[in-house]
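G.,

No rush on this.
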Amino acid sequence: MVQTPVKKLTFEEFLEQYPDGSGIYELLNGEIIQVEATRAHKNVARFLMLAFNDEIRRLELDYIADKDVIVKTFTDAGEERGRNPDVSVVSASQWNSNVLAYGALIEPIQLAVEVTSTNWDDDYVDKLDEYQRLGIPEYWIVDYLAIASRAYLGNPKLHTVFVYQLVEGQYQVQKFTGNDRILSTTFPELELTVQQVVAASQIQKL
């Protein structure tokens, strides 16, 4: 029996077939993949989005922070992918230039945040490469579970936030743990520690 290869979806086809109103999905290897997240994971993402929004309002910055932004990325082989960062910070001018369009963007956003889960290597390897290739200026990996390998987190493994800044096309990383204040070029006055981010996974105010 000859099996017909399944046609891989393009980014545009992914958007056309996106299951509206029933979860979060990404385009991976030409297929629509549902992204699952625990409540703790969502608590961390929500906490960061609200913290960013507080800074945006306080300083009247030209940004929008959201959790439902799909970004078109590419692998080193040129394969199209559709990523949905746990938190996205986008230029408000860029976002509002076409308010009737859907949430997908093909231009680099200002800041992408990924909160790690059991498939943590996707954040540390694949998304890191794709976001750097796209030219996203700032990328956070929030390892609130200390779930990655010791090669990243050290021994003993600590709850860590990695902040990658794009410098001449390459990411330069800073590592923050414990009571370290997380340093961000997008939000230079942000007063937020790793410990506060980790604590948000357990308790989230509505």
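When you get to it, here's the other one too:
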Amino acid sequence: MSGAEGKLELERIVFIGRTFEEYLQMFNLKEADLVGQRILDCPAGACSFTARSNQLGSDVTAADIAYYYSTDELADKGVQDIVHAMSEMDKVQDNFVWDYFESIADLTQVRNKALNDNIKDQRLAPERYVPVVLPDLPFNDEAFDLTLSAHFLFMYSDRLDYDFHLKSVNELMRVTKEELRIFPLVDLSCKRYAHLDRLIDELVRQGFAVEEMVVPYEFQKGANQMLSIRRMKP
């Protein structure tokens, strides 16, 4: 199997994704914002954003370490991961806000829809799904108008240090012409990323415009903000 150094074993990857509709709320976007835009979703996982956005007339690329594995492997892994995650959800229901989803059964249905749309699109247009290992991306400078990054940066701050976060954000901005949006701003214990202010100060020092924004989506308690990082207009 082809791959890169640092590629995770498939068992260590959690292949669960969000739907296109969740992305619109997570990143405070409207469909009209996407049309004609070159967009990077990184890490994209099992999300359906790429599949649905390309149908609308966007040019979206999905990037993730998971894509080093075959679509068949990921399809099986995604089903297993959803079953496991939902079986554990009973124990941690109080960590979540049950407004967007009516129940665990509803959540399960939505997660399966995202996975199915993702796998179907991978088979239809595999060139859209690029294997990467942050903080290194195989794309040209300013290759995308907008970059979206969900449920990775900040969430795993117990195992990914500040230097990794800074390098990853800088790399994501290198390939972004206009704006990078990151969601959410909390870790797995629902606490605001401890080094977020330090990171923001460094990005501002580098000349970026940075803003914390409340979004109309909250499932994990306290996870209702995104970080907008923009290139300053010359």
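Residues 104-124 form the longest helix (21 residues). The two ends are 45 Å apart (CA to CA).

Enjoy the weekend,
O.
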